[in-house]
Amino acid sequence: MTVLGRTAALVPAAGRGERLGAGVPKALRTIGGIPMLVHAVHCLASSRVVDLVVIAAPETEVDAVRALFVEHESGAEIVVVAGGETRQASVARALLVLPDDVDVVLVHDAARPFVPSELVSAVVHEVRSGHDAVIPALAVTDTIKTIDGSGFVTGTPDRSSLRAVQTPQGFSRSVLQAAHAAADDDLTTDDAGLVELHGVAVRVIPGHEEAFKVTRPIDLLLAEALLTKRRAARTNG
Ligand code: C5P
Q1: How many angstroms is it from 165 CA to the middle of ligand 1?
Q2: What is the dihedral of CA 19, 23, 27, 33, to 10 degrees?
Q3: What residue ranges define each of the domains in the chain, with the CATH number in brackets?
Q4: Nearest residue (CA) to ligand 1, atom 11
Q5: Is pTM, for the whole model, over 0.70?
């Protein structure tokens, strides 16, 4: 009989969020009165496929983040560590504290507060079906250009072969750990990028518009509107 391990989600939440404007770290900015990080962790926990969540918090906010999850119980076990200088370093620090019985690892940006729980389950399902690396992605709607350092276009890649990649990204633990252990600092902006460097096939599944990342002030408006819609649906349903 095969004994399945547990599934953990690593949540890098140590970014400063400079593109959102000065103030509190991005993951602690509130949407509908509740920090973005709390929304993100509750979405992961409500999928019921995540047993443990490891949060990489801003170094000065580790105790505050622990207190936050005493106040906002999620149902999943929560561990909080101090994040690093880059997203990649924050994920690497979270990986270090995983218990031995975890065999599938998701990495999910705190800055994607409203990922639908069906997307979380779909990623875990694909990993448990035998794919070592799984990412959700959407077709791009804008035409994308490559440019040089002086502001001139160098090319127009075929849009039909481009995808905008989201999180959670899912991995078998051994593959993700090996990729991080071998990586130099700040090589890539996502974890799939690291495992690609090892020749691991990365499976792409359909992403979801509601898994968008809050980066700029206009994304906060969208996030507030989506939360209002979800709260109304809960009240009426
Ligand atoms: O900057 P960006 O929006 O790509 O960040 C994606 C995620 O990585 C965010 O949730 C952010 O908090 C996290 N991050 C981190 N440590 C850093 C930089 C970013 O955990 N040093």
Answers
A1: 15
A2: -120
A3: 6-236 (3.90.550.10)
A4: 15
A5: yes
Beta-strand runs (E) in the chain? 6-12, 30-31, 34-35, 52-57, 77-82, 102-107, 133-139, 146-147, 153-155, 163-165, 169-172, 203-206
The tens-digit pLDDT sequence of the chain (237 residues) is: 667 899 999 999 999 877 887 678 999 999 999 999 999 999 999 999 999 999 999 999 999 999 999 999 989 999 999 999 999 999 999 999 999 999 999 999 999 999 999 999 999 999 999 999 999 999 999 999 999 999 999 999 999 999 999 999 999 999 999 999 998 877 788 999 999 999 999 999 999 999 999 999 999 999 999 999 999 998 887
CA 129, 134, 136, 141 dihedral sign is negative
Nearest-CA residue for atom 21 of ligand 1: 86
188-200 burial, b at 16+ Cβ within 10 Å, e below that, comes to bebbbbbbeeeeb
Q: Which residues of 77-104 are buried (b: 16+ CB within 10 A; e: fewer)?
A: ebbbbbbbebbbbbbbbbbeebeeebbb
Ligand 1 centre and the CA of 27: distance in Å?
A: 9
Residue 40 beta carbon below 6 angstroms from any ligand 1 atom: no
